[in-house]
Specification:
- It is built from ten helices and nine strands.
- Mean pLDDT is 87; it is low at 109-113 and 156-165.
- It is of the alpha/beta class.
- It folds into three domains: 5-73, 2-Layer Sandwich (Alpha-Beta Plaits); 81-155; 160-306, no CATH class.
- The strands form three sheets. The protein has a four-stranded antiparallel sheet, sandwiched between helices. It has a three-stranded parallel sheet with strand order 8-7-9, with helices on one face.
- Helix content is 52%, strand content 13%.
- The relative contact order is 0.09.
- The chain is globular, with a radius of gyration of 22 Å.
- The protein has helices at residues 19-30, 47-62, 80-107, 114-132, 140-155, 180-193, 231-238, 248-260, 270-283, 287-306, and strands spanning 5-12, 34-37, 40-44, 66-73, 160-161, 164-165, 171-175, 198-202, 214-215.
């Protein structure tokens, strides 16, 4: 832990325009930066955090300010352990706010109403955003995860499939380099089929199937392409989701056209989804990062159809 390296951003912001200081502060909060002194902020040294700081530096310079970005090690003043604890404390209020919302949902009597469904989805989206900047797993995260599992277990019970009942909390395995069908399918699984699902991304040539794992969108998988259906469509069909969640039909048609490239449904929104997924994959080589951001895309897409 003591060998951990950090990114240190120092800046000088011009006095005008007046709103610009608040804008930069908001951006630093959004990326999860830890304030260590006036105009000095830390992030753990990672590829994605470096990109965040570089964009902020450029934005400051474009407005006539000055910004300096350093890689640093802790030598005195604060240890790496203390910095990690400070990051955890920084995220604690975010989690406490979401825990309050989650407790309210747990206590709701009418959990199947449209209003409650929208609240659950909003909570899930906020949770994903906080997790992206919770670099050292704030202790409150475990409490929130438990409450969300309780909500999911009550409001979205395990759904039967053509091969039997899928237990909650299974490990779902698919090929590395996830794109639209695998990203969409993973979102579908966690949102509607197995709320506590965990995902593994493997190289098919070296992967050895383990008992209890469920494979999707890969050779020999329990759920994969069937006939002219992509994996997303197969999961929707075998889980019998359309009666309760008809908005999934539009999403499934878009995934079909992008993945199978046969232009069967030709929905006007498909090109936009394809371009977003293309950009996501170009920007993020890591599958976990792709999935985290891809789930937000699919969650928002689904809600746009569910609310129309």
């Amino acid at each position: 832990m003591e060998d951990r390296r950090w990114l240190l951003l120092l800046h000088q912001i011009p006095p005008k325009p007046a709103y610009f200081r608040a804008k930069i502060l908001r951006r630093l909060i959004q990326v999860g930066a830890l304030p260590v002194k006036n105009s000095a902020y830390l992030l753990p040294d990672r590829e994605d955090t470096l990109e965040d700081f570089e964009w902020i530096c450029q934005e400051i310079k474009d407005q006539g300010g000055a910004a300096w970005l350093f890689r640093a090690e802790t030598l005195a003043g604060m240890s790496s352990a203390q910095i990690e604890a400070a990051f955890q404390e920084l995220r604690a209020p975010d989690y406490e706010e979401l825990i309050t919302l989650a407790r309210h949902l747990v206590q709701e009597a009418s959990a199947t109403s449209g209003e409650s469904s929208a609240a659950r989805q909003r909570l899930a989206q906020l949770y994903e955003r906080v997790k992206q900047i919770d670099f050292f797993e704030c202790p409150a995260r475990k409490e929130l995860a438990g409450l969300m599992a309780e909500i999911d277990a009550r409001d979205r019970p395990v759904i039967g499939s053509g091969s039997g009942t899928v237990e909650s909390g299974r490990t779902w395995v698919t090929r590395k380099g996830i794109k639209v069908d695998r990203i969409g399918s993973a979102w579908l699984i966690q949102r509607f089929i197995d709320p506590r699902a965990e995902f593994r991304f493997v190289s098919p040539g070296s992967y050895q199937h383990k008992e209890g794992e469920i494979r999707f969108d890969m050779l020999g998988a329990e759920f994969t392409h069937e006939g002219d259906q992509c994996t997303f469509e197969v999961l929707v069909s075998k889980s019998d989701l359309l009666n309760e969640y008809p908005a999934l039909r539009a999403v499934a048609e878009m995934v079909h056209d992008i993945d199978l490239k046969d232009a069967r449904y030709q929905r006007p929104e498909t090109a936009g989804l394809a371009r977003m997924i293309e950009g996501l994959c170009a920007r993020l080589p890591d599958d976990d990062a792709r999935l985290a951001q891809g789930q937000l895309i699919f969650a928002s897409l689904y809600e746009s159809f569910a609310g129309s």
